[in-house]
Amino acid sequence: MVWQNHTRVSEFFPLGLTTNHAVELALFTLFVVIYMLIILGNILIIFTIAHDQRLHSPMYFFLSNLSVIDVCHSSVVMPKMLADFLVDKKSISFEECEAQMFFLHLFACTEIFLLTIMAYDRCIAVCSPMHYGTIMCRKMCLQLATVMWMGGLIHSVSLTALTLSLPYCGPSAIDNFFCDVPLVIKLACTNIHVLEMLLVSNSSLISVVCFLVLVTSYVVILVSLRNHLSEGQHKALSTCAAHLTVVTFFLGHCIFIYLRPAKSLAADKVVSVFFTAITPLMNPIIYTFRNEDMKNALRKLCRRQIDSQDK
């Protein structure tokens, strides 16, 4: 069936986080601040890495990619969420909903691949420092970046195409503050059992494979550093601990939301807030305040700006 011939729903109605307008206004203020911090924090990281030659290494190349993804990922959902806080009737057109799902899964899947690549990068840096420059050369970094973006694109296109293939003739209420595949497909007026199985299989494969690579990388790092911890190795462990914190929050959401049938739970909205707002906010904080190289680069950048203003 061609979906255009069967679609009766022209728009969906997100139920949002709450029905209390006073609470919505308070949440609007809170999330405006969070969104501004996400944008400013991640742009500051990108700008600092671009302008400090000492940070032109594979680790910071991938970190700048993470900041780009976090800005894009949060921007897919948060502007619409903020606008909905200010209106009584929340709605999103069918086309906007599909676009939101496409870009949400593009950036989310790409970030999962990126976090896995970053774990592999740290593993090579700790376990094979003498060969690190040869293995993680510029060409390899660009190839890995291309693969992760292409992987995210293929995943997103496949899920969006499956969603578009379904007929929607009502109901049209989405029990969250944004469009997501599990929330939308359960509104289809057809049996979605097969599509649910495809969604779970797709998400399971990506999550499990990336999880195994991540766990293997950290086990190898811990075994390598078990008997001798120099100052540099303490620094490596600190970086890995920060990375593991980000991974826990991000993959935790994917496992909770996507590795089960399309059914709404009370905790879904809380988990979704962490996924779309808190995790992108945490990344600049974790990677900046736990990283001496980044802190030194930021101090240098600030001194340069102050000196230029004095002149």
Automatic annotation (TrEMBL):
The UniProt keywords, alphabetically, are: Cell membrane, G-protein coupled receptor, Membrane, Olfaction, Receptor, Sensory transduction, Transducer, Transmembrane, Transmembrane helix
Q: Which Gene3D superfamilies match?
A: Rhodopsin 7-helix transmembrane proteins
Lineage top rank: taxon: Eukaryota
- Cited Pfam families: 7tm_4
Membrane topology value: Multi-pass membrane protein
Which part of the chain is the G-protein coupled receptors family 1 profile domain? Answer: 41-287
Q: Which InterPro entries did the record assign?
A: GPCR_Rhodpsn, GPCR_Rhodpsn_7TM, Olfact_rcpt, Olfactory_Receptors
Give its localization: Cell membrane; Membrane
Q: Which residues form a coiled coil?
A: none
Which family is this sequence assigned to? Belongs to the G-protein coupled receptor 1 family.
Which named protein is this?
A: Olfactory receptor
Where is the chain membrane-spanning?
25-47, 102-120, 141-162, 205-225, 237-259, 271-289
